[in-house]
Design a protein that fits this description.
The protein is α+β, with helices and mostly antiparallel strands. The protein contains eleven helices and eleven strands. The N and C termini lie close together (about 10 Å).
């Protein structure tokens, strides 16, 4: 980390802490995610799902950009140097007296659905979509913290206790790890409601209370849905029948299209839940699609009217600095290895997934 100066602490989690850093090379500010786990080799670093996911998903306007990976072989420390954002969604809405405008909510949710569509198309699901992991900078939204992500091609069952409880989908609560990328849409729906109302939708105190709160709002699921869940868990699903009060309309200015999309995202049965690519085509986002189309048209006109210019190389793109390391090595990247989000869990074997491996550069 000799090329960076620490400015201050941004936050801390179970497996890492995030610092604001200034680069001594270009003077720019970055967010540094310093891992608490110690690593034995560059091979182990390259095997981290979070690093592999960010390499596969970047660049994308709604995915946090990874600028550099700094591994100190001598101490075993690892840091991810990412772009610095202004705040997360939780910080944006915390303490607000009045909700954001529906236009602003629509703008943020469209970008969140764009990020989910991108990661799902690339064979990854996030598994921890929540306000703290959704970052904002000048009205641009980016999904971050891929420490719990997983390949959609990996073999079930997955870890049961994934995702933060309030945003955990029913299939994560009621099965022994048999869930899919659709869990991200449930979590995004919970975030959707929270942005619009400034209140969490299902603030359960524990797992049983979480299920109870879901049933209080959207009712006990149909028997066919419970039967599907029962096939993968030996537990009693004798839930008392609840009709459900419906999603609380704490804000009365939400459009019917907004409520329609919200209901589609928090459908109890994942097979009936909307996918990200479908959400992007929902009538709620009609204005967003028009704006995007106009912007794309203007961009094309500018591109064709000017002389072609060779693109500049990405600054620090996919650099990995291996301090205290003499011999550079290249490694094959595999998706299913130990994740920081599940520190001691060994991932089961998965179908092979092609991963683009950017070139690595070394510094002494």
């Amino acid at each position: 980390m000799k090329n960076y100066k620490a400015i201050g602490k941004i936050g801390e989690g179970t497996f890492s802490e995030v610092m604001k850093m200034q680069s001594l090379r270009d003077g720019n500010y970055y967010a540094c995610k310093q891992m608490k786990q110690r690593f034995e080799s560059i091979e182990q670093v390259n095997s981290l799902r979070e690093i592999q996911a960010l390499r596969r998903l970047n660049p994308h306007p709604n995915i946090l950009t990874l600028h550099e990976v700094v591994f100190d072989r001598k101490s075993g420390s690892l840091a991810l140097i990412c772009e610095l954002m202004d705040m997360n969604i939780y910080e944006l809405i915390r303490g607000r007296r009045y909700p954001l405008s529906e236009k602003k909510i629509m703008h943020y949710m469209y970008q969140l659905c764009k990020s989910l569509d991108h990661i799902h198309r690339n064979g990854i699901f996030h598994r921890d979509v929540k306000p703290e992991n959704i970052l904002i900078k000048q009205d641009v939204l980016k999904l971050g913290d891929f420490g719990s992500c997983r390949s959609v091609y990996s073999k079930q069952p997955y870890t049961e206790y994934i995702s933060t409880r309030w945003y955990r989908a029913p299939e994560c609560l009621l099965t022994d790890g048999f869930y899919t990328y659709k869990m991200d849409l449930w979590s995004a729906g919970c975030v959707f409601y929270e942005i619009a109302s400034l209140q969490p939708l299902f603030p359960g105190a524990n797992e049983l209370d979480q299920i109870s709160k879901i049933h209080d709002v959207i009712g006990t699921p149909a028997q066919k849905t419970l039967t599907k869940f029962k096939q993968s868990r030996a537990m009693n699903f004798d839930f008392p029948f609840k009709k459900g009060s419906g999603i609380p309309l704490l804000t009365t200015n939400l459009s019917p299209q907004c409520l329609s999309l919200l209901h589609a995202m928090v459908a109890y049965d994942p097979d009936e839940r909307i996918a990200a690519h479908q959400a992007l085509q929902h009538p709620y986002f009609q204005e967003q699609r028009k704006t995007e189309k106009r912007a794309l048209g203007s961009h094309r006109k500018v591109c064709f009217s000017e002389h072609p210019v060779a693109p500049e190389p990405l600054s620090n793109s996919w650099q990995i600095s291996k301090e205290s390391r003499k011999q550079p090595q290249k490694t094959d990247l595999k998706m299913e290895t130990i994740s920081l989000g599940e520190q001691r869990e060994r991932a089961p074997q998965s179908e092979p997934v092609a991963v683009h491996t950017p070139s690595l550069t070394s510094t002494a």
